[in-house]
Design goal:
Blueprint (H helix, E strand, L loop, with lengths): L3 E4 L2 E4 L4 E7 L9 E6 L6 E6 L6 E3 L7 E6 L4 E6 L8 E7 L17 E2 L3 E6 L1
Length: about 130
Amino acid sequence: QVQLVESGGGLVQAGGSLRLSCAASGRTFGSYPMGWFRQAPGKEREFVAVILSNGVTTSYAESVKGRFAISGEYAKDTLYLQMNSLKPEDTGVYYCAAASGSSGTDYLKDEERYNYWGQGTQVTVSS
């Protein structure tokens, strides 16, 4: 059973940086595609970034491209999301997720493709 636990959220001023972590169990990183999603108050959850099981191929939402970077560490079985140049519109609960099937990055922008989810971590960006 895959378990995912996010950490690293918090309050930061616009222009600042945060690094989110997602600790996985059971050799998840490198075995499953993994992604980050976020949900702002009153809005639906949306795709942020994905990394395939090869640990190299990534894809990002247009709104975060050039500012966020997804990566992972095999030894720690941990997924990361480095967030730079944060904006107030980046505020929300951030979730990591893992998909049991392998597929391309476009397919994995859909949250329905993911089988396992963490509990989320709150990110608040003040203006």
